[in-house]
Amino acid sequence: LLFENNEHSIRYSKLRPSLAEESAEALVKLLGSGKPSLWIDVGCGPGTSTKRFIGHADKIIGVDVSDSQIKVAKETVTHPSVSFVRGSCEKLPAEDGTVDIITAVQAAHYFDRPAFYREVERILKPGGILAVIRIDSPGVCSSPKFREVLQKFNKFTCQFTILGSSTLWRNHYKDLTLPFTEQHRLVFRESYKRTFDDVVNLFTTYSHFENFRKEKELSVDEARAVFVNRFEELGIGEEDKKEVFSFDVDTLILASRK
Q1: Rounded CA separation 218/222 (Å)
Q2: Which of these, 5, 64, 140, 196, is most buried using a 10 Å CB contact count?
Q3: 64: helix, coil or strand?
């Protein structure tokens, strides 16, 4: 499992950007039948995005295959309407036809999607919404130099990404098929201020960082140092490290109605 590491799950929880604030309200509006009674967030990780749905449904269940992610989620997201359970996208914790909205944030590229879509078909109410959501890595940057370096650095990290998931992820889900005929595409953009250290720390939350670290048998600090050195080789100097950059992060929602 990629995220079966408590330290990694904590980094993920603290450093990953969440989906845009407008996302939950937009999905409820798209549903069009009032406040959802049941919302399931599949591949919820440490609850980073699940917490955005609080207040928008009577009951929210976050599901993840990783014990460490679920442990961190339970510790960091505490609300009476939210619960977290360990499970897979192929067997979701709901009765037939009982769920109003199903979300998969930063996760669908890892799924066995045919099996997932069978579960979606089973548990989603007629008229219910499936939303597959992608949050862009910080690639739109106020510094042309750093933007160019990031593009080169991403080519270096790409070799440590899981085959199949990498292609789907990097082409912005353009080849992702959804199970129902009615489909909607929504994009929300937010801006973040980041330093060089912020960006490097963010990279340590990604699956390709864990894959790289395990392949090279390095500690987190050792692997992070290799990443820093790679940035320096690509042209990032000491003055660049002091600069505060503005990054635009897009929340892409691909929604489909049953």
Answers
A1: 6
A2: 64
A3: strand
Q: Per the structure block, which two tokens stand in for 223?
A: 């692997």
Look up tokens 């953009």; give the residue: 189
CB 100 within 8 Å of CB 162: no
Tokens of 175: 């080849």
d(CA 85, CA 234): 42
Contact between residue 61 and residue 94 where contact means Cβ atoms under 8 Å apart: yes
The DSSP bridge pattern shows strands 99-105 and 124-135 to be: parallel
Please state, in angstroms and rounded to a whole number, the distance separating the CA atoms of residues 106 and 45: 9
Beta carbons within 10 angstroms of residue 38's beta carbon: 19
Q: pTM to 2 decimals?
A: 0.83
- Nearest CA-CA partner of 54 in 78, 33, 34, 74: 78
pLDDT tens by residue, 127-136: 999 999 998 7
Residue % of the chain over a pLDDT of 70: 90
**Conformation bin of residue 243: beta by default, left when phi > 0, alpha when psi is -120 to 50:** beta
Q: Dihedral of CA 80/65/45/32: which sign?
A: negative
